[in-house]
UniProtKB/TrEMBL annotation:
Keywords: Membrane, Transmembrane, Transmembrane helix, Transport. It comes from Lactiplantibacillus mudanjiangensis. This is Uncharacterized protein. It is a multi-pass membrane protein. It is found in: Membrane. GO terms for molecular function: cytosine transmembrane transporter activity. The keyword Transmembrane helix applies. The chain crosses the membrane at residues 64-85, 105-125, 137-158, 170-187, 244-267, 287-315, 327-352, 358-376, 396-417, 423-445. GO terms for cellular component: plasma membrane. PANTHER family: CYTOSINE PERMEASE (PTHR30569:SF0), CYTOSINE TRANSPORTER CODB (PTHR30569). Belongs to the purine-cytosine permease (2.A.39) family. InterPro entries: CodB, Pur-cyt_permease, Pur-cyt_permease_Fcy2/21/22.
């Protein structure tokens, strides 16, 4: 007799949930108070200060409302996001969003590692006289930095989920002190009115719509990891309010500092180069010294602790026989190799922009389907036992909900079309409009092809 496949999921019972509201707040502020956020803020400098601030508030608010909604799902069920997405995409169909999640979190780990490795190259320059990355011979310092960061990541993930708490508790204090320090340095260099008056050269200008999509791609990346962490908290407020407040606070503060620091460098030097928006270059030009570079390395670890745990969870969902810890080791090694890509494909900014374009068009429709299915179709209730049951209510057609997959593919196409509409590209951005359209299409198609049977009285 052919044995039925097993699709186990890990559900965290209430008695085993040990993350407090402070832990959850620290996790999410630490996830965003990092190098990648700083760099994105520097990229948004091309919008101008006022437009960039509006983009940060609008895009982050919409994105982190989605994070809170997914966070509540984790709190109610005790399951990770990629286990919960089986309810909408089907048990086998969930492999597609799991693969997307796997690639994007490996990508974000590589982004943060590359920026931290750049800091290591500056440290080696200050301590040993090695050339910094970007100068002749600077690649060896960067490669050594990538190796150092990858070893640190392997050590941290070996401890598992508890390592996230330890890293965040230490990191959050140093991060706050560092960002206060840099805030003072920036505003000693230039005034707020100077920042407000500065505009990027016309050929480098970024529209508000492009800024919305850029930041949405960054922010929505965290949404698909929401339940991975909120399933460890006993309090509803810890699962909904704390992720929103922590993620928004970390994002706004660090993106603003990256934005302000990049503009201040452009004002004082007389030239604006978005390739120089990385934290290490800015910290060096602002004269912040070795301590600042060490903190940049630490903030990479705080963000990547979250990235790697989410990537490992996605890999475990695709291959249930792989336990979480080996999965974490595997994704850490893969991320190390991906970090080397910018050395062969041009500038880091080029690779980073291409990465944002990819995740921007694939994440929005995926999250839209996930939320609509749970909150509208299933009225905030998934049977977690059924999520692991082949031929159960989430099996759909041979384990795949083709309606969800079709909507996801359609969402990618609609996103690309919306980017060609002038008012969307220049003002609103395509991401959130695409999400609304896909939500409506999914609701309609599911009502037609998979009508829910009324419950017996």
């Amino acid at each position: 007799m052919k044995q039925e496949p097993k699709y186990q999921i890990e559900v965290i019972a209430t008695k085993h949930r040990h993350m407090s509201n402070w832990d959850m707040f620290a996790t999410w502020i630490g996830a965003n108070a990092n190098n990648g956020t700083w760099y994105v803020g520097g990229v948004l400098a091309a919008c101008g200060l006022l437009t960039a601030l509006k983009v940060i508030v609008a895009s982050s608010t919409l994105s982190y409302l989605c994070l809170s909604l997914v966070g509540f799902m984790g709190y109610r069920t005790g399951a990770a996001t990629m286990s919960l997405i089986r309810g909408s995409f089907g048990i086998r169909g969930s492999y597609v969003p799991s693969f997307v999640n796997l690639t994007q979190y490996i990508g974000w780990t590589a982004v943060n590692t590359f920026i931290a490795a750049t800091s290591v190259s500056y440290l080696l320059h200050d301590i040993m006289g090695w050339p910094v990355y970007g100068k002749p011979g600077g690649a060896k310092g960067l490669i050594l930095g990538i190796i150092v960061m990858s070893v640190l990541h392997l050590l941290s993930v070996s401890v598992g989920q508890k390592s996230v708490q330890m890293i965040e508790r230490l990191g959050i204090i140093l991060v706050i002190l560092f960002v206060l320090w840099e805030t003072v340095v920036v505003f000693k260099t230039v005034s707020f009115s100077q920042l407000l008056a500065w505009h990027a050269p016309a050929k480098l200008h970024m529209t508000a719509g492009a800024g919305m999509d850029t930041l949405a791609a960054f922010n929505l990346s965290w949404v698909t990891a929401g339940a991975d962490f909120t399933r460890f908290t006993r309090k509803r407020s810890g699962a909904t309010g704390m992720p929103f407040l922590g993620a928004f606070a970390g994002l706004f503060w660090f993106a603003f500092i990256g934005l302000a620091a990049t503009i201040s460098i452009a004002i004082t030097s007389g030239t604006y180069d978005p390739n120089n928006s990385d934290p290490s270059t800015i910290a060096s030009r602002l004269g912040l010294g070795v301590l600042a570079l060490l903190v940049i390395v630490l903030t990479s670890m705080t963000a990547n602790a979250v990235n790697l745990l989410a990537a490992g969870s996605a890999l475990s969902n695709i291959f249930p026989k792989i336990r979480l810890r080996p999965a974490l080791w595997a994704v850490t090694i893969i991320a190390t190799l991906v970090t080397l890509v910018p050395l062969f494909v041009g500038s880091f900014l080029t690779a980073f922009t291409a990465f944002l374009d990819y995740i921007g068009m694939v994440l929005g429709p995926m999250i839209s389907v996930l939320l609509v299915d749970y909150y509208w179709r299933h009225h905030q209730h998934y049977d977690v036992n059924e999520l692991a049951n082949s031929h159960g209510q989430y099996w759909y057609h041979h384990g795949v909900n083709w309606i969800a997959l079709i909507c996801w593919v359609l969402g990618v196409g609609i996103f690309l079309l919306l980017k060609k509409v002038t008012i969307v590209a220049n003002v609103f951005g395509a991401t959130f409009i695409d999400m609304i359209v896909i939500a409506l299409i999914y609701m309609l198609l599911m009502r037609i092809f998979y009508p829910l049977k009324p419950k017996a009285a």
